[in-house]
Design goal:
Elements lengths: L1 H5 L11 H4 L7 E3 L6 E3 H6 L15 H8 L6 E3 L14 H12 L5 E8 L2 E8 L10 H17 L3 E7 L7 H20 L4 E10 H4 L8 E4 L5 E2 L3 H8 L10 H6 L5 E2 L2 H15 L6
Parallel strand pairs: 5-6, 6-7, 7-8, 7-9, 8-10
Antiparallel strand pairs: 1-2, 3-4, 4-5
The chain binds zinc ion.
Zinc ion binds next to loops.
Family: Belongs to the AccD/PCCB family.
Subunit structure: Acetyl-CoA carboxylase is a heterohexamer composed of biotin carboxyl carrier protein (AccB), biotin carboxylase (AccC) and two subunits each of ACCase subunit alpha (AccA) and ACCase subunit beta (AccD).
Keywords: ATP-binding, Cytoplasm, Fatty acid biosynthesis, Fatty acid metabolism, Ligase, Lipid biosynthesis, Lipid metabolism, Metal-binding, Nucleotide-binding, Transferase, Zinc, Zinc-finger
């Protein structure tokens, strides 16, 4: 009896709450993956998708990036209709391409074109990591090579924003060939004295970091971007050494001379315009 008196009686029934899960209404707010601050999506977008609390740079879509860079309403897209074939008939590849096309509203992992920045005409390429993790297949390589050729013809500087997991395994050797192809196209650009600026955003890895992304006359990165060839674990196992915590970050590479500058997104357009201004050909002016 006494035991009954002290028995804890639940006053309320516990109903598994859906509310906890839906704490952050999808679309209206987002949680910063770095500092866990809840951010209002609209404000985040206004701030170029950079966390106000800690400066974390959220990924940008290709079109968001283009809009943040070029003078309003002056972008002409190149080769928008190019689509990947499935030359190796890799199981499931076509379905994945189709899914990513629907999800991203893009035909491939890069948008190329021309526009003005601060009044300076440029050829611009922007990768989109939503499409097959921004991996480089034959279409990505072809679009970059074509953009470089147009830059040579028009004598416009070429600015390329990278965001990529590397080569596209479903295209095998054809994907690896794009490393040589894009590098050759950029060498031609170089020989024609056309400026090439590479901007490495999170993440720039694998065959992309080992080809065009590192070949800029000027190489810039966004803060905190992961940049490297192989993954940390693979390297640690190979060299049998513990790597520093900031290994493969933009800041680490800047310290070791692999980058020229780390530029926060809020300063990116102005910085690029300053570079364009500095390199502008004034002989005709
Ligand atoms: Zn944050």
């Amino acid at each position: 009896m006494l035991r009954d008196l002290f028995r804890k009686q639940k006053k309320y029934a516990t109903i598994p709450s859906e509310q906890v899960k839906k704490e952050i209404p999808e679309g209206i707010m987002q949680k910063c993956p770095k500092c866990r601050t809840i951010l209002i999506t609209k404000e985040l977008e206004k701030n170029l998708k950079v966390c106000k609390a800690c400066g974390y740079h959220f990924p940008m879509t290709a079109w968001e990036r283009i809009e943040s860079l070029v003078d309003s309403g002056c972008f002409i897209e190149y080769d928008a209709d190019l689509q990947s074939a499935d030359p190796l008939e890799f199981p499931g590849y076509q379905g994945k391409l189709k899914k990513d096309m629907e999800k991203s509203n893009l035909n491939e992992a890069i948008v190329t074109g021309e526009g003005n920045m601060g009044g300076y005409p440029v050829v611009l390429g922007v990768m989109d990591s939503r499409f097959r993790m921004g991996s480089m297949g034959s279409v990505v390589g072809e679009k970059i090579a074509r953009a470089a050729e147009r830059a040579i013809l028009k004598k416009y500087p070429f600015i390329l924003f990278c965001a990529s997991g590397g080569a596209r395994m479903q295209e095998g050797i054809l994907s690896l060939m794009q490393m040589a192809k894009t590098s050759a196209a950029l060498e031609k650009l170089h020989r024609n004295h056309v400026l090439f600026v590479s901007v490495l955003t999170h993440p720039t890895t694998g065959g992309v970091s080992a080809s065009f992304a590192s070949l800029g006359d000027i190489n810039i990165a966004e803060p905190g971007a992961l940049i490297g060839f192989a993954g940390r674990r693979v390297i640690e196992q190979t060299v049998r050494q513990k790597l520093p915590d900031d290994f493969q970050t933009a800041e680490f590479l800047l310290k070791h001379g692999q980058l020229d500058q780390v530029v926060p997104r809020s300063d990116m357009r102005e910085t690029l315009i300053r570079i364009l201004d500095f390199h502008a050909d004034r002989r005709e002016a």
